[in-house]
Amino acid sequence: METKLTRITELAKTNHDMAFTSLAHLLNKDNLKQCHHELPSGKATGVNGVTKEEYESELEENIQSLVERLRKKTYRPVPVKRTYINKPGSKKKRPLGIQDHEDKIVQRALVKILNAIYENDFLGNSFGFRSNRNCHDALKILNLYIEDRFTNYIVDADIKGFFDNVDHEWLMKFLNRRIGDPSLLRIIARFLKGGYMEEGKYFDSDKGTPQGGVISPILANVYLHYVLDLWFEKVVRKQCKGQAYMVRYADDCVPRKQPKCA
Prior knowledge:
With 262 residues, the chain is of the alpha+beta class. The protein has helices spanning 2-14, 29-38, 52-56, 59-71, 101-118, 135-148, 162-165, 168-176, 182-192, 216-239, and strands at 80-86, 93-98, 153-154, 157-158, 196-198, 201-203, 244-249, 252-257. Helix 2 (29-38) packs across helix 5 (101-118). It contains 10 helices and 8 strands. Strand 7 and strand 8 form a beta hairpin. It has a 4-stranded mixed sheet with strand order 2-1-5-6, with no helix packed on it. Strands 3, 4, 7 and 8 form a 4-stranded antiparallel sheet that branches.
């Protein structure tokens, strides 16, 4: 899989308008088994209550069944088990989605494919959930902007309830710009529409990507790349008479600029 992903990365880097039409075949037996082994053990279980160790006890049969369902387009994710965790610095609770182990396997494989494509598209001001980039890197570049460049205005912005309110229709439109494989898009759409279980009750999910999901970070970055990063670069900066910069980590961003804006 790594060789094929490297080739996808090369093509994505040389042609930013290219839409990849053949990707679902990468969700094969060997690659899915590798994704299973890469997932951490001892994590909370989803709706079915299956642990990594239990899934591994019949790994060949389970993976073969998964591959067949993916190939026949009958694979459907299990509803996410929703729980709530404390939100740092607040008395509010943050919803957390816990996937079934098998769904984590598929999501991990999807993440690898999406990263191979979109790492070439994401802008330098994006730091969250990306390889070799972390919050410390974001703080370093922010500190550089503040100390070494003229600064008059700094805005600390957080998108309220971002992961719960991502627009599915727009997200799929954004993905269509780079992914032309209907089979792969169908799987992603099913994850988005898979619903969730809370206190034994099923709820539809017509918006959002469950925070805590394996695939949620890359989908969040794709969405924010188009609605925030490119908007800032192509619209906001052009309207500013002085310098303007933005540093984004996931759904938190810090734009800074000089005062003379049109």
